[in-house]
Amino acid sequence: MIKKIKDPIIKKVINKIIGRSEVGFKKYGTTLKDDPADFDSWLNHLQEELMDAVNYIERARFELKEKKCNCDE
Predict the structure, then answer these.
(1) What is the pTM of this model?
(2) Which domain holds residue 2?
(3) pLDDT tens column, 17-71
């Protein structure tokens, strides 16, 4: 079932998800559904991704603070 997406933000997110799926398939040669990893492996992978996300947030906050400091000069 294909639905027309009205919200351009949602459409952009969906396209990014599709793109990530294609990258993952090329890299690992399988879909998420067919990946034989056990539950603990999935939890470990999620934990690693979330730790990366925290690092990206910290880097973005650093950049915002840098820009604010430069604007005050």
Answers:
(1) 0.71
(2) 1-35
(3) 999 999 999 999 999 999 999 999 999 999 999 999 999 999 999 999 999 888 8
Q: How many CA atoms lie within 13 A of 8 on its CB side?
A: 0
Distance CA 59, CA 27 (A): 27
Say which residue the tokens 């990014």 belong to.
Answer: 16
Residue matched to tokens 């599709």: 18
Write down the H helix ranges in the chain: 8-28, 39-71
| Whether 41 and 20 share a structural domain | no
Torsion of CA 36, 40, 41, 43, to 10 degrees: 120
Q: Specify whether 28 is located in the same domain as 51.
A: no
